[in-house]
Specification:
This protein is mainly alpha-helical. The protein is built from seven helices and no strands.
Length: about 150
């Protein structure tokens, strides 16, 4: 049983990455564009350039999109995790210690989920893996056998 689970790990990790990235990108899109219920479920948007909400929403949209695609996963997850740690400690934690008391469950979960992706990478189905498999033109020409030129 353990062998089957181990062989499925990259696929489970890839699906985890896709779901987390999609949810994070949707959260950013809601705040920036007023879709999916809008900012804080009010149907509105966050005013452009306001600190920290607008910048957090941009990180959510771009970071979530990159994680969803599996492109630059570790870097995007690192920035996204830090953004959620900031959100938790600056926005939620001052009102109460525990996430259940201060409304910071989503921030805490996103923070830890992205931190996991920093260490695991994109898993299966990511563009990182697809691009890593494609040899560059320089590598292709170096791998081709050289034939001597007849004089």
């Amino acid at each position: 049983m353990s062998g089957r689970l181990d062989s499925a790990q990259p696929y489970a990790l890839g699906l985890f990455r896709i779901v987390v990235g999609l949810l994070f990108a949707c959260h950013g899109a809601a705040s920036l564009f007023g879709v999916l219920g809008g900012a804080s479920g009010t149907g509105g948007t966050i005013e452009s350039g306001t600190w920290p909400g607008w910048y957090a929403a941009v990180i959510q949209l771009i970071g979530g999109g990159l994680v969803l695609l599996g492109l630059g996963t570790r870097a995007a997850a690192f920035v996204s995790s830090g953004s959620m740690a900031y959100a938790y400690f600056k926005v939620h934690q001052p009102s109460a210690l525990w996430p259940m008391e201060n409304g910071g469950e989503a921030s805490a979960m996103f923070c830890w989920a992205f931190l996991l992706l920093v260490f695991t990478g994109s898993g299966a189905f990511g563009l990182d893996r697809l691009l890593a498999r494609r040899p560059s033109e320089r590598e292709k020409s170096a791998a081709e056998p050289q034939t001597p030129v007849a004089a």
